[in-house]
Every structure is written in C-alpha cells, then in structure tokens.
Amino acid sequence: MKAALLSIGDELLLGETVDTNAAVIAGRLYGVGVAVRRQLTVGDDEEAIAEALDSLAAEHQLVIATGGLGPTDDDVTARAAAQASGRRLVLHEEALARLQDFFARRGREMHPANERQCLLPARVTLVPNPTGTASGFQLLHRDCLLIFLPGVPGEMVRMLEETVLPLVLARRDESRVVRTRQLTLFGVSEAEIGARLTGLTVARPGLGVAYCVDYPLVQVRLRGEGDGSEAVQRLLDGAAAEVRERLGEHIVAEDGESIDLAVARLFREKRVSLALAESCTGGLIAKRITDVAGSSAYFLLGAVTYANGAKVRLLDVPEELLAAKGAVSAEVAMAMAKGARRLAGSDLALAVTGIAGPEGGDAVKPVGTVFIALADRAGCTSKEYRFSGSRDQIRTVTAVTALDWLRRRLLTL
Amino acid sequence: MKAALLSIGDELLLGETVDTNAAVIAGRLYGVGVAVRRQLTVGDDEEAIAEALDSLAAEHQLVIATGGLGPTDDDVTARAAAQASGRRLVLHEEALARLQDFFARRGREMHPANERQCLLPARVTLVPNPTGTASGFQLLHRDCLLIFLPGVPGEMVRMLEETVLPLVLARRDESRVVRTRQLTLFGVSEAEIGARLTGLTVARPGLGVAYCVDYPLVQVRLRGEGDGSEAVQRLLDGAAAEVRERLGEHIVAEDGESIDLAVARLFREKRVSLALAESCTGGLIAKRITDVAGSSAYFLLGAVTYANGAKVRLLDVPEELLAAKGAVSAEVAMAMAKGARRLAGSDLALAVTGIAGPEGGDAVKPVGTVFIALADRAGCTSKEYRFSGSRDQIRTVTAVTALDWLRRRLLTL
Predict the structure, then answer these.
(1) CA–CA gap between residue B337 and residue B168 (Å, rounded)
(2) Which of A7, A38, B305, B372 has CB atoms 3.0–4.6 Å from B311's, for a disulfide?
(3) Is B411 exposed, middle or buried (0-12, 13-18, 19+ CB in 10 A)?
(4) How many Å apart are CA A44 and CA A228, to the nearest integer?
(5) Interface predicted TM-score (ipTM) over 0.90
(6) Domain boundaries, chain A
(7) CATH architecture of the domain formed by B3-171
C-alpha cells in the first residue's frame, strides 16, 4: 500500500510550529507495515490543498491529511476536500448530532461557529473525535482512501489509533511484514561505520540499512521486509549479530534504549550508587542522570565545582595541587572524583574537568582538553581527551563519554 | 520570491525523526521576508529526490533541500541533484581541500569514505560547512536557486545563517522591507496574551503578530513590512512599546536574547556571584547557567543534593529539619540556599527542592510541588509552587522559574 501524508497549516510554513504529527503518523503506519512514500505541507489555502489532495491521490492508495478542520475562517480543508473530489459541501447530520452531544455531555453551550465544522463533502464516512470539536472523515477518490484528521496532536493520535489504524490494517496487503531494529554507536564516525558494514545487505534480500547522526552518537537502523514475521525476525537477528560482530565494542544501546537509559538500567541492576563532580560540564551529566525517573535510587549527589575555591571547599582538592598542576589536569580530576566519593559515601564517583571554550585554552591545554576520572573502592583512574567543536559540542561529547565510562564499568561488576 | 523546502531522509518518512529543520528554515526565511509555499519530504531514493527537485524548481524561485549529504551509501542527494539538473557528478576540488583541512585542523585522519562527500554536480558553488564533513552547495536549475544543506541541525543552522540567508537577502525584491521583533513572555498563557493584545494590528498596516509556545515560555513575534527600513522600524518600535505597556511584567527577554542569556548579562553587569543547590532539577539549572560561555565569572558552585544525606553533608541542612518538615518544604529549601551561600561565599544562592514525578507525590504534596528559595546577605525568601505536566515539563518550568527569580532579583540591584 503506497501512502502519503498531507500537513495543512500556515503555522507550519511560517516555522511557528514543528510538525510532529507527520512523524507520529508515519511511525504508527510503519508499525503496521505501511511505509509512507512522501509527506507534503501546504498552507491554509483551498486551491493549494485541493491540488495537493488530487495529485497525491493519483499516486497513492492512502493519504492522511491533518489540520484545517477548526471553526474559524482560515479552516478550509473540508471545502478543499469537496473541491478535489468533485462533491458538494453538505451539513453532515451525524456529525452535527455528535457535536451537540459533545457539548451536552460537558454541560456547555455549543457556539454557532462550531456548526461550520459539520459542513463536510457529501457521502463521507465519519472518523469520530471523542476529545474535540473537529469531525474527522474519510472518502474514496481515484481509488485512493483519503482520511482527514484535526491537527491538534492529542485529538489526532486518539482518532488514528481508534479508527484509522484498524481501517488501514484491514486494507493492507496481509502477507508483507516490515520490522526495524536500531543500534546506537559511540566513538566511531559515520564514515567508518559505513565502511565496516559494507556488504551487510548482500545475500540478505529485504534488508535495508540507514545511518542517523545524533551527535556524538550514530544510530544504525536495520529494516527488514518479507513474507511472514518469523522470516523477517530471522533476517534482522542475523543482521544485528553481524553488526555486533563488526562493531560490537562501539555499541552503547540497542532498540530505542538511549545510552542514558542503558546506564540507568545498569545502576539499578548492579545496585551501585554514584556521585558526580563536574567542572566544564557544569551539571550536564547530573542533569542527564536525573532526567531518568527513579534515579534517586542510585544517584546520591553531584558537585558542580566551577570555581577553584569550590573544588577546595566541597571536594577537598588540595590548593597546592591546583597551583602545581592546574584545575584541568589528571591529578585534579582524580582528586575531585575521590573527594566526591568520600563526601557522598558512594560506590562510584566520576569527575570531569576541562576547557569547553570558546575562551580559556592555550597551546599546552587547548580548548577541548578534558580529563575524566572514575573512583571506586579500589582506587581511581583517569584519562585525557582532546575533543573538538563548539562549546556545546564539547560539553555534549564529554557527557556522553562520561556516561559510556559508567556503562563500561557497570558491565564489569 | 516563491520558496519551497525539501526534506530528505528515510528516518523522516519512518517517523523515527521529527523534522525540525523545516520549521527552522521556514522561520528564518520568514524573518527575511520570504514565505515558504510548500514543504515536501521524500526518502533516500535517488529517483524520488530528482523528481521532487525538478518539479519544485519549476514552480519556485528558491528551493532549500536538507539531508542526504553524508558519507554512506544511503546518502544520494548529490547524485539526485546531478540527475535533476542534467549535470555530471565530479570530484569538487575545493570541497576536497576544505575537507582535508577540516580533518587536519582536528588532528584526525580523513576516512576514505569521506571523499565521497566531495562528489558533487559539475559547476556548483560551495556552501561552506565549518562544523561538519558534508559539503553544502548551490546551483541554478530552471531559473530556480537550489541550495543543498546537510540534515544535521547544528551544521545546517550555521550554514543557513552564514551563507544562505545573506544570499537570499541579496536576491529578493529590494524595495519591500520586512523586519521582525520578538518578545519572550513567561507566566501568562497564550490565550491570555492573545486576548490582551486584541486590536494591536488595528491602525498599524503592515504589522503581523504571531504566537509561538516554547514551553513554558510564549514568544510574541511582531512582523513589520513596508517601504523603507525607517518606516518599518517605527512600526515595530510602536508595536513593541504597546506590548510592553500591556504585558510588561511578563516579558523576560527581547529580540532573540533567551532568558538564559538575559540572566547571564545581568550577572556580568551587576558583578554579583552565584551558588546553586538543586534537588528535583538535578543539575538542570547549573547546566543552563553554564551553557553560557563566561559563566565562570559569576557562577561559583552548584550542589546537586538528590539524597537527604547529601543535603546534610554538603549544605548543613539539619537532620531534625528534614525529619520534621520533609525534604520538600519551604524550611529545607531555605536551609539549602543558606547552606550553599555559606559554602560558596557567594552574593546570591538559589535552591530548589520538589517532586518532579512520576512517583513520590501524595495528597498533601502532589507531584509538581516545588519550593524555590533565594538567599542573600540580608536573609532568605522562599515560595511554594504547584506545577503540572510530565517529569520533563515540571523540571523545565522549575528551571525557568528559578532563572526568572534571578533575573528579577538582579534587576533590583
């Protein structure tokens, strides 16, 4: 089944609203084995919408349109649908009854402007909207099923799940199955990954591979298509095993689990507690750790010691050490980690100190110089890094590197 | 100038990635007076991209395409551009020299696969990419300017600002002037803002007003269009003054300055130092403070005291107080703020403690209960909030509320 999406709204073309509906619908359709071939956005313009509907209907078997079903003058999708399909616009009695009921249940008076939302092309079938005033509807045009949903994300999603997906499932070609698998890699470039995975699809018909950079991570996305879910499962299992074989040391998470969630899961599984001491990341690592609900079970404290005085007072970093080695040094990173561990009484303590820039670098320690240290009961290790990029990039890659240190250490426990 | 956008990538049509690039580019083009007429998304498919380029070029004077310029096999945008414009694919010497330089500056070996990113249609002009390996480029086809940018948002935005917008400004109709002005509001709903600004455009021909929610902030965007920049400037000055008159107490930043940057500017201007003590925000406020380069001049330290023991050990919060009042209380928030100020020796210290959820709430202190406290030489004040939404939303609105506390306090100094 060839599918297309049409997003309608001036706010999308003015850049005032990010179109999340398209991604949500595409993802759900993909989940039931229907791949979207193209997605188009037009403004609140009757001619433009009608033309888009007609041309998309000519090349696809399913078109889902969102937006332009509200009660105000700039909502013209129903009129455009009537024009594109050569139908009259009529007052839809069932839609009107539903809308009156919608207001009655809420004990509210229906505004006359809302009746406009029941003017639909003749002979359409309703797509019920349990949570809003806009009536969804569907019609056949040029052998293409055109489905119209409101642009309000919450209303749209519920109508998609309750009515549209069952409808699509009933119409699609049953025999084809599509599944995906995702692996998240760190510490290796997209170019290198592509090179190491050369030939992965050879002798694996139905397998597709795509790469997506989410700096500093790279996602490898495997897509399997075939007859029957078992065969597709085997295809993806084989391909994922091959990726692990070729790039295993760089895989930090699989199947939608982020590195943050993988680290959180390991902390829970291993029953180990954590303290952090951050200089150049300024709280970013603590923020990412505590983004995960339930992190209070293992995260005891974080010290954001931006000033040297704070390193001395909070973490007992010796002043002489700071004077002799500088705040950005392996020795200070280790003193910070040990100090944080002592202060928190935690199993592990991780510390970072570095120069995120754009100022503060010199020839010996340029911008991007970062030391990471990890202390545990047995002692403390540290390593120097030279990262590049903007302040934001250096802070982000430092945080991900720190999370990967924790992940690797937790795996050994 | 009629403009269109083309987004390229299987991940967009599979719903794995939300297309934020389209909104960013549309918004920036609108800011220089160019309205996008349509936006199209296609997958990583050479034929589909070439066909889309050709048909968009026939109906527009400007097409900006993003995505598909990476080093791997699924990146086929340059090949499609060559096909659509009837050109050969050639190794672009300048692009190659730039790329070699890119790797040399970072002290890294260039992977052979990256050379593929310099295979571009013949006779194109480069759009330099200072932060990544993908070469942007532009070419004329059917009297339409086609511009190709990578899909990585950070790289794309920088190229858009440094090269594309000046290029567009030089080509568009010179006589009409379009300027925008932006005011950022906090603590007031979009509906309330709309009601209070009723009639703003009356008697102000050429003025447009749009609203954009960037939770928990709302941006009011004024757009002035007219003949001559002085007249447009006056129009916008008058409208902005009216917005300040009607909603002044809620304006936290103007003209692209975020609330984070406004706070940073005030700290520098007032020469005041800061310490933070965070519980439920877990480092998020420190992260936002240190996102700004130069924050080490005023930010001394942050204590992320997630566990009760950390509050006691780091901030000298009395154990009896924690037992009597609970960690989420006005008394503990004030003890945290005073403790952080004492520890850092700072002028100001801000503390937050609360329940971000989804677990941990009860009838008396439901999820979303947050206490903020601010200590200075004269004493300490605190306030209780009841925020709603997801864990992420509660943490974000808490951080913005805290930044707004700092902003208001600094303005009184």
Answers:
(1) 51
(2) B305
(3) exposed
(4) 42
(5) no
(6) 3-171, 176-254, 259-412
(7) 3-Layer(aba) Sandwich (3.40)
Classify residue B131 by its DSSP letter: T
Q: What is the DSSP string of B91-103?
A: E-HHHHHHHHHHH
User: For residues A409 and B288, what is the distance between their CA atoms, to the nearest angstrom?
Assistant: 28
> Which residues from B are below 8 Å from A313, CB to CB?
301, 343-344
SS3 A253: strand
Residues in A touching B42 (Cβ below 8 Å): 37-38
Name chain A contacts of B293, Cβ cutoff 8 Å. Answer: 356-359, 391
pLDDT at position B174 is 62
Q: Shortest Cα distance from B404 to chain A (angstroms)?
A: 19
In tens, the pLDDT along B250-284 reads 999 998 789 999 999 999 999 999 999 999 999 99
Which residue in the set A13, A17, A307 is minimally distant from B39, CB to CB? A13
Which two structure tokens, joined as six digits, stand for B308?
């009760």
Cβ contact A16–B27 (<8 Å): yes
- Please choose, from the candidates B56, B15, B274, B209, the residue with its C-alpha nearest in 3D space to the C-alpha of residue B145: B56
Complete DSSP assignment for A313-328 = HHH---HHHHHHH-SS
Query: Coil, helix or strand for B165?
Result: helix
Share of chain A residues as helix, strand and coil, in percent rounded to the nearest 5:
45, 25, 30
* Range of A100-109, B29-38, B209-218, B257-266 with top mean pLDDT: B257-266
CA distance to A344, B194, B350, B380, per residue, from B333 (Å): 20, 36, 9, 10
Architecture of domain B259-412: Alpha-Beta Complex (3.90)
Contact between chains at A284 and B283 (C-beta distance less than 8 A): yes
Mutation target among B11, B20, B69, B72 for the A interface, most CBs of A within 10 A: B72
Q: Which residue intervals of B172-227 are DSSP H helices? A: 190-196
